[in-house]
Amino acid sequence: MTARPRHASVAIPIPVRRQFTYLVPEPIAARLSVGARVRVPFGARRVEGTVIEWPAAVPAEEIELKSIHALVDELPPLQPAVLELTRFVADYYLCSWGEALEAATPGFAGKDPLVRRIHLLPGGTTAKVSQRAAAQRELLQALSDAGEPLPLARLTPRERRAAVVLVERGLAAIEETREAPQPPQSRNVAQAERPLDPMPEQAAALERILPAIESGEYAPMVLHGVTGSGKTEVYLRAARHALDRGRSVLYLVPEIGLTPLLLSRVSRRFPGQVAVLHSALPRARRWREWQSVHEGRCRLVIGTRSAVFAPLSDIGLIVVDEEHDGSYKQDETPRYNGRDVAIVRARAEKSVVLLGSATPSMESFHNAQSGRFALLQLGSRVEDRPLARVGLVDMRQEYGELQQASALSRVLLEELEDCLERKEQALILRNRRGWAAALLCPRCGNRVNCTSCSIALTWHLAERRLRCHTCDAEHPYPECCPTCANEELKPVGEGTEKIEDLIRDAIPGARVERMDRDTIRRRGAHEKLLGRFGRGEIDVLVGTQMIAKGHDFPRVTLVGVVSADQSLGLPDFRAGERTFQLLTQVAGRAGRGERPGRVVVQAFDVDHPILRLAAVQDYEAFFQRELDYRRALRYPPLAALVQLRISDPDELQSRAWAGLVADAVRDAGDGKLLISGPGPAPVERMRGRYRQQILVRSDGRRRVVDAVDRALNAIGNKVPSRALQVDVDPLSLL
Ligand code: ADP
Ligand code: ZN
What we know:
Helix content is about 30%, strand content about 25%. By secondary structure, it is an alpha/beta fold. Adenosine-5'-diphosphate binds near residues 202, 228, 229 and 232.
């Protein structure tokens, strides 16, 4: 840029898909660049935005343009590559560029306290003020000595009055900045970890990965390795290779808190080189980590979804660990999938992207099968340890023989006792927290529902509260059925809280603990629980799906699953895939050490093909079967899918708007799209809003996204943005 810009296009984090032009005030023109964060007037508010370009043509109504208020922080501007990635997110996920940019700098925008600082302007020398203005002269001198802006808060009242005069006279200016970034923490260099000698299959995978890193070309690869096959060691060796060649590494994981051991392992393998980017870190720490990446001090970033926007340069390898995991998808705007954005980034950076899982997503494995991605397989566990044996228990038969319902089968209890006698450990999965999934009225057959959602309330015994798992509303135990006033209500569907209790009763003396969202509310609580389990201070850990995540506890030899088939009944085309993944993953926690593992899966519908395939842990058979089903019903990965959801507190209004949206999509689609709906969403009411849903499908991703894009433009503000939600490649249709 030679001439100083007079105008800037700014992206603002609001759900309006356009950019805004502002005048650039002279004092900041020299320091402004594309990617910089600025504070701008917007309506009656001041908001933070990002400069995205210098407009070629300035709108005719220039007279009405407002000026940028301030350059807000001292962070160097966002890198062009990251800026470009956010533009992709905005285009593809149909949100505003400003919203996409918010996702790229999580937790900083508009939240850190602002500090006002004063700095010298060109010409701000003592020569310009009279001898008698001592305070002004002293301040000018102080500023020139400091060589950097000084926070107003650190000035004396006398200096502050002088500052006002200097600003008025154009010798100094005040800028708003973020709190001064602290120097990086000295990084804990713990005992360095040595690499393991690769097993033959690991070596074979590396023989394909390392040359690909070397080639400097985009290379997407699926690493399909059964549970316990040693995928982590492959990632770490590949990372070493990229770092040795001077390139940086991005290592994405679904949820850091759930795999604390992995984090310490990576830090030990690459002491001093690892930065962690994760939204649950305290803000000051997050800020430091981000800076250490931006300044190039840390060349390996490990982090969750939003770390895909990490300010790394020259990435040689992107690892997406447990790439099938639903936490890669953000469930609020922008609704991006971190795995898919990682693939886009890898293409731009010409790097290897390694999508690892024991149960790859249908999308990734389909890409591998069709040859778009390379397929690397680890078919056996390290040291040829066997996968755990899985037994299905038919709970109908159990009831028939016992003549009473029980949540835990005799087989499972016997296995548990044996396991504890051998001084080994067990994990029990029940993917539902609370004591009872619902309260049922035996007289009218209704369940006690949330007052703002069409969802049954869950009974939490310890808190003595009914809780809505959708909106988190709490209610006391009702005196009677809200529908028919019957006084007797029956708790149905045992949750983790009850299962924990049942095991304590059945096996006195067993050390039983529970891990679910209720027991890990406090920061660090899950690390603590997992730490205690790892040290053998807990015998049985009962929990929701979070106990199934990549944990590696060698003393776990028994895994039990309660109500394994429940999730199969959900009205969502991914219900089968999700159930298969969960069962395979949790089964994979058993028998990872020297002793073989055993898995007991309780279900009513034990003949369900998904359960059968999960029991034999046959991923490829599952994939083929599932693909046929997706083909027949035209669902991803064999079709592209966009979900539109229209909601309003008023049911008729939601339907009227849904009709309008559907018409716009139909017009934009030229008859080339498959449009289902509008109709009520599976959960018809949520947080007091009635929900309508439209599914738009087509063969090509670009076609469906472009059509919806045109439809949204045509709709304009006829439907308020808060009433319309767009989800490209949705993971859940509920
Ligand atoms: P996965 O992620 O594929 O389920 P992990 O990466 O957790 O498997 O590895 C399973 C276990 O095998 C870990 O305890 C790991 O330390 C061990 N392991 C991995 N590779 C090797 C190797 N080459 N030699 C010895 N042990 C290994
Ligand atoms: Zn609710």
